[in-house]
Structures
1.
Amino acid sequence: MKASSRRAASLLLIAAGLSLCGFAARHYFLGWQAQRDGRADFEAREARVDHGLENPGLALASSRANGGRARTSAGLPEGYPYGEPIARLRIPAAGIDAIVFGGADQEVLEKGPGHVPGTELPGRSTDLHNCVITGHRDSHFRHLGWLRAGAEVSLQAAHVTRRYLVVSREIVTPDAVRVLAPTATARLTLITCYPFNYVGPAPKRLVVVAEPTTNP
C-alpha cells in the first residue's frame, strides 16, 4: 500500500473514531440534560399542594415532551404520562439517583429509566401491584448488576416515598414476559439488557425484583 493510501486510510479511521466519540458524547449530554430538566419538573410537581387530585404528582393530562398532547398511539391509554417525569428512583448500592419517565421506548430511555406501560404506575396502589421500570445498561442502569439481595431501593412519586429491599435477581431471555405480569403483592421490578459488556444488542435481560420493606 502506498504511503498516500495508508495516510488516507488512517485519516478515515480517525474521522470514524471521532464521529463515534461525538455520537456518544451527544447521547450522554442529552441524557444528562433530560435528567436535569426532568428533576426540576418533578420536584416542582411534588412541591405543589393540589387538593382534589388523586395523584397530583403525575399531571397526566400534560405532556411537554409531545407538544402538550398525551400520547395515545402504540396502545397507550388516554392520559398516560408518556415522556413525563413521574418518579425518582434511588438505589445507593448501585449509585443510581434518576428521574423515571413514562414509557419504555427508545425515545424515553434516552432520557432516563422508563416505566413500562401496562404495569402499575409509581405512586399508585392497584390490583396490578407490579411496577416495572427499565433502563439502558450503558447509562442510567449501568450499575444495576451490582445489586444483591438486601440492597435498599426507594421510589418517590405522587408525594409518597416507598422503600423496598432487593429479594432476587435473574437472567432471562427477552421473551420472558412473565416478569411484567401483575403480582399478588406489591413489587418493584427493574430490568436492563445483559451482559453489560456485550457489543451490540444484548441477547438477555437482567431482572432485579424488590419488595416493600416494613421500615418507614
Note: The longest strand covers residues 160-172.
2.
Amino acid sequence: MTKSSAATQALQNELVALLRLTRTEAQVARVRVSQARRDEIRRELEKNARKADARSTRIQKALRQLGGTPDVFGDTVGRVTALTKVTTEQAQPLSEGLLGDLALEHQLRDRVVFTRVLAESQDESKIADLMADLEDAHTETIEWIRLRLAEVAQGGPVALAPTPTQAAVGAVTRFATIPTRRSAAFVNMAAEVLARGRAAALSTVDSVRDTAESTVESVRETADATEEVVSAGRDAALARAEKVSPSAAARNAAHRTREKLGTIDAADLPIRGYEGLTNAEVNEAIHGLEDAEQVRIVLSFEEAHKNRKRVLNTAQKRLTELAEVSVNA
C-alpha cells in the first residue's frame, strides 16, 4: 500500500467510525424524546435526531466519494449501541445518562477535528468543510446537554424526566444523604409498602382483566387507595418528625423531603400569599425568584396541589433560565 493510499484508508476509517457514532447519537436522541417533559424540548430532541440522520447521510456520501464501502451495518450498530447504553442507564440516576450523552458528543467532536485535519492534509476540501460543519453542530449539542445537567444539579430534572427505574435509583441516592438512620429507614419502609401494595394490586388487575371487569375496577381502586394511604402516612410522619425530632439535622432532612414532595404548608413557600394569587401573579412572582431551589420548591408544591399547566411551565422555564446562568457563570 502506497503512502497516498494508506492516508486515504485512514480517512475512510475515520469516516466509518464517525458514521457509526452519529447513528448511535440519533438513536439516543430518539430515546430521550420519550423522557421530554416539555413540548419544546420534545420538538428539539426530534429535530436533533433528524439532524443526526442528515449528518449520517452526508458522512456516507463523503465516504463513497473517497471510494469507501457504504457501512451497511452502521444503523444496526447504532441501534444496538444506543439500546445497550439506555439499558445500562437504568441502574444509574438520570445525571449519569446525560453525562454519557455528553461523553459521546465530546468523542464525536474530537473525532471530527481529527478527521478534518486528515482531510486538510490530503487536500480533501469538501470533507474538511463537512467536518467544520459537524464540529459546530456537536459544540452546540454539548452546550445543550450541559444546560440539562445544570437543571438536574439545581434540583431538576426539568426538561428531561427519569424513567421509573432511574427515579427509584435517584431516590435511593438522595435518601442516602439523610443524616439519621431512623429517618432513612422510615422513608424506605414507606416506599417499600407502597411498591408492594401497588404491584400486588396491579398484578391482580392483569390476571382478571379478561374475565371480570368489575373486579378489575375494584382492584384498581384498592391500588389507588393503598397509594393514598401510604402517602398520607408518609407525609404525616415527615411532618411529625420535623416538628418533634430532637435532632436539628433530622428536622432539616424531614423539611427538605417535604419540600421535594410538595407537602409543606403554603405559608412556607418563598412566595408570600401564594394560594391567594392569580395565575398571572404567580407567574410574575416566579420570574422574580433568583434561587433555583426556591423555584423547585414552588414547582413541587404546585404539582402536588393545583397542578396548573401555565404555572408549571413558568416554573420549569425559570429553572432552565437559572441553569443557563449557572452554566455561563
Note: Confidence is low (pLDDT under 50) at residues 171-185.
3.
Amino acid sequence: MKNLLDNASKAYYEGSDPFLTDDQFDRLAELHNYHDVGYTPTDGIRHTYQMYSLQKCFDILDSPFGVLSSNVVLSVKLDGAAVALTYVNGSLQGALTRGDGIHGRDILDKMLHIAPNTIGLHGIVQVTGEIVAPERIENARNYAAGALNLKNISEFMDREILFYAHGMEDDGDFMGDVEYGDTWQTRMEFLKDHDFNTVHTHMTDGLPKDGLVYRINDTYDFMARGFTAKHPRGAFALKERQKGVVTTLEDVTWQVGKSGVVSPVAILTPTKVGDAWVSRATLHNLDYIRELNLEIGCKVEIIRSGEIIPRVVRRV
C-alpha cells in the first residue's frame, strides 16, 4: 500500500494524471497510517524556507487548538499546485514547485509571467501560494499543475491560471514596515498592496477548494508554537471526511483502458453511494488487491467522489 500511495503522491504533486482523488487518497492514508507528503524531484533545488504541509482535521472538535479565539483566522484552502517564490532585495529571483517541501523544481521562467516581479521589502522573502484554474475547467487542479510542466512558455501563457498567495516568510525586515503588528492578515494585506492575489483579500468564488484553513494570526505566537517535521503547530486544514459504504465483493473482472493498460474491476453487490447506485469499482492493479487482502465474498468499504468511478478502500 505504501508504494501505491507513494506513486499517487508523486502523480499529484507532479501535476500528471492522478489515479486517486483527494478523498480517496485521504481515506487510504488514514486507514493505512500513511503520513509522507510530496515527492523529491530528481532535479530539485532547496527551498529558501521549508514548505510545510497542513495537518488535516476531519472534526473541528478534534482540532489541535481552540478556534474561537480572536487570534485565530479562517481562510479557504484552494485546491491547486503549491509553489514558493523567493524575492531578494525586492526582486523575484527564484520560483519552485512544492516537491517534498525541502526541495522543489525550478519554474522561475513561468512564474515571472504570472506573479509580481518585485516586492517592497529588502532582504530575503519567500511568498507561498497556489497555482489555480477556474473550477469550471474539467480536472481544474490537474490543468493548473500540468501547466508547470509545459516546456513552451507560449503554451503556458495560454493556460487560464492564477497565483493566489497564502503565506509569507522573511528574514525580519517586515516588522519595520507594519503599523498594527505582525500578523498573517497584515502580511496578506501587504501582499495585496504589492499586486498579489491572496486568499485573505481577494474573492475565491469559482476556484476549486478542498477545505478550510484555521491559523494563529499573530506571527510571533504562530512561530512560538513551532513545527513538527512536516506541519506547523499553529495551523490546520479542516476537511470533510467522505463516508464509505460497505458492500460485498462478488467477483473481479479485467478491463483494457484507453491507454491499453489492463486493470482489475470489482463487481459488487449493488449499493447506493451518495446519489448513485454502484455495482463496480476500480481496484487499480494486482498489488492493490493483495495489499487489501481482498477475496471473493468479503465485505469491502467503497467511496465515491463526484462522478469519479468508485474505489474500494479497505476490506471490512
Note: Helices lie at 2-14, 22-31, 108-114, 140-147, 153-158, 184-193, 219-225, 286-291.
4.
Amino acid sequence: MAIAGQPEGTGVCALQQTAGRGRQGRSWSSPPGEGLYLSVILRPRVLNPVVQLIPLAAALAVARTLDDIYGAKPDIKWPNDIIVGGRKACGILVESSTESGRIDFAILGIGINLGQEEFPEDIRSTATSMLKETGLLIAPDDLLSPLLERLAEWYGLLTTDPAGIIEAWERSSSYARDCRVTINTTDETFEGITSGLSPTGALIIELPGGNRREILSGEVRLRKVKSEP
C-alpha cells in the first residue's frame, strides 16, 4: 500500500498475524483476538537523524495510552519495548524505504498483548499482557482510537520539538540513566552505566574507565544487571 502511494496515516489492523515478527527478525506471538496488531504508513518530512526518533515517539504514545486510560504504569526498555509488571507487553518495529538518500516512507508496526493468559514456552518468562497485569479485558477496537490520537501527537513533535521526545523518553524509562546494563552485540558483550540518550536517540553508555559509547538500536540486546545482595 505504501509503494502504491497510499497517504501518510493509512493504517491496517489485523485480528491475527500468522507471521508476526519483531526487531532483528524475531518472532512475535499474535494469536487471534488477543492483541492489537497495527501497521501505519508514515511519510516523515524530516531528515536523519531526526527520523531515527520515530520508534521513541511511538513508544511514548503507547506508554501514555496504556497509563492514562488503564493505569498500567508502563516502563520503556530502550529503544521501544513497553514493559508492564517487569515483562514485555508491547513491541514496536519501524522499517523504512529510502530513495535518493531521503525517506520515501516508513511502516510503523505495533503489537500490544491484550488478552493473553498463556504464552509460548520460549517467551513465557518474559512476556505479559494487559489482562494479566491489570485484570482488564481490553478490546482492540477500544484501544485503537486513543492510541492513534497519541501517535499523531508524538509523531508531530518530530518536526516541532524533537528534543522534547528525547526528554520525555528519558523521564519515562527506568533504563535511561544510572542503570547498569549488559550490552550484547554481534561482536562483543560488555557492561556499563546508562547516561541518557544522544540527540539522535542512541543510548549513551559510560564504560569502566570513564569512556562513553553510543549504542544504536539495531545492533544490541539490552538487559539490566541485578544488584548484588
Note: The first helix runs from residue 54 to 70.
